[in-house]
């Protein structure tokens, strides 16, 4: 397979694969959310990294290197341990959440473009915003029809321009700002490190940090195109865990230090932080801020591009096995499942209409849709960890080039941390958002609960129907 892909020009280097995976996980627009926790963010990022991010990365690395499990990502891992029915459910849940995630990611891009061109209507006029979402999404989708080689190029550019360079600039100017002795808006010290877990809101906040790490396993559908995958996949995962925790900590602390809590805007907080710091040193440097806003937008475009062909690749493998209509197995000359990608695009278009034209951020339907994607994805992670337990306890004889270090007992502890944290996050995610009051809370919980049950059942119904037809 490796030689075949290389011949096609689709072989992924370690850096290309790392950039693709990093683009799916590391998002600068999460920094303001982290910053709302003040110095507690360091504790939350470390705890979330140890209890959830690291277990997902390590378990994924082991399952991705099992002989014969290199194609299909989470579909292959769960399918080979729990059965094809559950494997399809896992990849369906991963795919489902990103169809909504695309829209919220593009909202950030539009915010940057709106700032660059002083075009407020782009953010405030629903119809214009909807059209802009479609232009960006379909434009990026079309670029992915060129195959993995194109995806890798865009991911590398997005990571370097939209994540690495802004992070380095942010780190440099924030250090210079501190060295000058300027006041900061975050209290730093041992007493501010550990949050008060007796408050329910603290638990809700902690879950938001866990959710920021979601997606680390999604690039595994391309592991069969990765050069020396049995060595490079685990290596990419370990590097990513370290880099993500460090950059998220620096980014979140910088935003918290520069922007007062009362003025913190979750949508524009990152750009606001650059604006404060750059204008402090260069009063006429608005053009620099706009340039950085452009870089941030390019970074998120790289993220969208990486996700377009991530879960859809796993769904393609499911279609090849007859679980989805045969028409979805059609690929172009670059081995991209074009029909599946276009079906995905239609679903995203529908979500864009619902989320953009159906009301603002305080709208019950909007908040329910966002929460639904979270709880559905978490169910996928529960299947992922249960599959890993099955691998370790009942199929430990299977050959793989990487294993979580420490023996069977430590492997089970690592997986248990991730599994229990996922259950905790799933329960907390049903707590109503703070902006909802009165009857809206009951409406939110009712819609979310019913939608959750229906969505969980969908892949099993599809599998049941297609399996009967194949008999």
UniProtKB/TrEMBL annotation:
Domain of life: Bacteria
Location within or outside the cell: Cell membrane
Annotated Gene Ontology cellular component terms: plasma membrane
UniProt membrane topology term: Multi-pass membrane protein
Gene Ontology terms describing biological process: amino acid transport
Alphabetical UniProt keywords: Amino-acid transport, Antiport, Cell membrane, Membrane, Transmembrane, Transmembrane helix, Transport
Chain ranges passing through the membrane: 12-29, 41-61, 95-117, 129-147, 159-180, 200-223, 235-259, 287-309, 336-358, 364-389, 410-432, 444-465
Catalytic reactions of this protein: 4-aminobutanoate(in) + L-glutamate(out) = 4-aminobutanoate(out) + L-glutamate(in)
The keyword Transmembrane helix is annotated on this UniProt entry: yes
GO molecular function: antiporter activity
Keyword Transmembrane in record: yes
One Pfam family it belongs to: AA_permease_2
Coiled-coil segments: none
Record family assignment: Belongs to the amino acid-polyamine-organocation (APC) superfamily. Glutamate:GABA antiporter (GGA) (TC 2.A.3.7) family.
Protein name listed in UniProt: Glutamate/gamma-aminobutyrate antiporter
UniProt source species: Paraclostridium bifermentans
Protein's gene: gadC
């Amino acid at each position: 397979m490796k030689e075949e892909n290389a011949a096609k020009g689709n072989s992924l280097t370690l850096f290309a694969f790392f950039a693709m995976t990093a683009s799916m996980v590391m998002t600068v627009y999460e920094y303001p959310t982290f910053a709302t926790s003040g110095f507690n963010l360091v504790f939350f990022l470390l705890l979330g990294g140890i209890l959830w991010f690291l277990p997902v990365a390590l378990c994924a690395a082991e399952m991705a290197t099992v002989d014969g499990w290199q194609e299909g990502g989470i579909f292959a891992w769960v399918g080979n341990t729990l059965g094809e029915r559950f494997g399809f459910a896992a990849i369906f849940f991963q795919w489902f959440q990103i169809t909504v995630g695309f829209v919220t990611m593009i909202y950030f891009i539009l915010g940057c473009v709106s700032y660059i061109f002083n075009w407020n209507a782009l953010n405030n006029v629903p119809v214009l915003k909807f059209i802009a979402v479609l232009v960006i999404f379909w434009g990026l989708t079309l670029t992915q029809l060129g195959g993995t080689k194109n995806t890798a190029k865009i991911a590398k550019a997005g990571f370097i321009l939209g994540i690495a360079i802004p992070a380095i600039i942010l780190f440099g100017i924030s250090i210079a700002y501190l060295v000058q002795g300027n006041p900061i808006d975050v209290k730093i010290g041992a007493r501010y490190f550990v949050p008060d877990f007796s408050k329910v809101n603290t638990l809700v906040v902690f879950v938001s940090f866990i959710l920021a790490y979601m997606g680390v396993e999604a690039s595994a559908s391309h592991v069969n195109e990765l050069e020396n995958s049995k060595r490079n996949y685990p290596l990419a995962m370990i590097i990513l865990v370290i880099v993500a925790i460090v950059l998220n900590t620096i980014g979140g602390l910088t935003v918290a230090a520069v922007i007062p809590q009362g003025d913190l805007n979750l949508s524009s907080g990152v750009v606001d932080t650059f604006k404060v710091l750059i204008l402090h040193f260069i009063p006429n440097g608005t053009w620099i801020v706009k340039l950085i806003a452009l870089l941030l937008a390019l970074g998120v475009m790289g993220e969208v591009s990486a996700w377009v062909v991530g879960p859809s690749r796993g769904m393609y493998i499911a279609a090849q096995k007859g679980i989805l209509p045969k028409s979805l197995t059609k690929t172009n000359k670059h081995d991209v499942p074009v029909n599946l990608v276009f079906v995905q695009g239609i679903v995203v278009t529908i979500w864009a209409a619902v989320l953009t034209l159906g009301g603002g951020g305080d709208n019950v339907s909007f908040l329910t849709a966002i929460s639904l994607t979270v709880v559905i994805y978490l169910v996928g992670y529960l299947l992922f960890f249960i599959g890993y337990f099955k691998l370790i306890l009942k199929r430990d004889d299977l050959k793989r080039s990487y294993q979580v270090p420490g023996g069977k007992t430590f492997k089970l502890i690592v997986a248990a941390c991730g599994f229990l944290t996922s259950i905790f996050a799933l329960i907390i995610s049903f707590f109503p958002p703070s902006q909802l009051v009165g009857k809206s809370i009951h409406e939110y919980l009712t819609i979310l609960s019913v939608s959750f049950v229906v969505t969980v059942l969908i892949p099993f119904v599809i599998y049941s129907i297609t399996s009967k037809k194949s008999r």
